[in-house]
């Protein structure tokens, strides 16, 4: 499910994590298979991606159980 990015933070391993509108989070640097998103390491890049959408795997998992499309 597509969810808007509302912010970013770094995890304990110094990797960037996107905060999504649904309340879930998603790593943006090493989303399997180790997809590198160079924009995330710059302040401008992150700002530019605020409001953009990522596929939230957590939401997909929740919705697949009861609201299958
Ligand atoms: Zn979600």
Folded structure, characterized:
With 69 residues, this protein is of the alpha+beta class. It has one domain. It is built from 2 helices and 4 strands, in the order E-E-E-H-E-H. The protein has helices at 43-49, 57-66, and strands spanning 2-10, 16-20, 25-27, 53-55. The protein has a 4-stranded antiparallel beta sheet. Strand 1 and strand 2 form a beta hairpin. The chain is globular and about 40 Å long. The chain binds zinc ion (ZN).
Q: Number of domains in the coordinates?
A: 1
Main pleated sheet: 4 strands, antiparallel
User: What's the overall geometry?
Assistant: globular
Strand element count: 4
Bound molecules: zinc ion
Rg, nearest Å: 13 Å
Q: Give the structural class.
A: alpha+beta
Percent helix among the residues?
10-25%
> What distance lies between the first and last C-alpha atoms, to the nearest angstrom?
11 Å
Low-pLDDT runs of 5+ residues are none
Strand order, main sheet: write it out.
3-2-1-4
Mean pLDDT: 85
Percentage of residues in DSSP E strands: 25-35%
Q: Helix and strand string, N-terminal first?
A: EEEHEH
Total helices: the number is 2
